[in-house]
Amino acid sequence: MNTQDWLVKEDGFCENCQLSDDWEWKDKTYRLYRFLTDLEDILEQTQDEQQILLLVRPLVRRLLTSSYWIQGEYTWPNAQQGWSVSTLYDEVDFPLTIQMVVWLPGQVSSVHNHGTWGIVGIISGEEKNLFWRRNPDLNAPHQIKQVGEKILRAGDIISLMSETIHSIEVIGDEPVISFNIYGATNYKKRYKFDPINHSATNF
Questions:
Q1: Long-range contacts for 108-111 (Cβ within 8 Å, ≥24 apart)?
Q2: DSSP readout, 147-176?
């Protein structure tokens, strides 16, 4: 099965991104500390979200392909909560958070944005992403409109900008395990949306 890289901007449209054809690293181990150093170098070079995603996305694929131990660094969620988050890296005053996330079958997230750029690599399972964009009017300034969807499978990587609005749903009988990395969150711009009542709340 072919893996894919995707980019979703604030307009909600999912763009297919070209996979890196850099094969020089195929036989070299790429460790987490090198990944973090490369990330720091990129963040010092540019603050442009789309450029950051362009440069970081192939590094995520390289890391997941090379450092298989990461794929097992997760906590199994209890059935009542239905999901779990295990932090691999989160340093004070350094604008990066790296997590392993597990969603059990049948789980559905809220409709939300992240208030920062993010990259998610699917380790196992399948999830449906629904994409939304803002569609405000005078009576409903937080009204949103669904504009697309994409099913992600193991090996797929999706990049999200800070204003990208999406929700996820686990499909099939297998849990979804993913590697997630996020920049520094602007909590004043991070929202959970209610598409029925046309409202939004910070979280």
A1: 108/167, 108/168, 108/169, 108/170, 109/167, 109/168, 109/169, 110/167, 110/192, 110/193, 111/144, 111/165, 111/166, 111/167, 111/192, 111/193, 111/194, 111/195
A2: EEEEEE-TT-EEEE-TT-EEEEEEESSS-E
Whether the Cβ atoms of residue 203 and residue 190 lie closer than 8 Å to each other = yes
- What are the structure tokens assigned to 162, written together? 């800070």
pLDDT (tens digit, 9 = 90+) per residue, 91-145? 888 889 999 999 999 999 999 999 999 999 999 999 999 999 999 999 999 999 9
Q: What average pLDDT does the structure give for the chain?
A: 93
**Is-above-0.85 flag for pTM?**
yes
Which pLDDT belongs to residue 28?
Answer: 79
Strand 144-152 with 5-8, pairing: unpaired
Residue type for position 194: D
User: Radius of gyration of the chain from Cα atoms?
Assistant: 17
Q: Angle at the Cα of 165 (from 101 to 54), degrees rounded to 5?
A: 75
Task: Give, in words, the CATH class of 5-202.
Answer: mainly beta
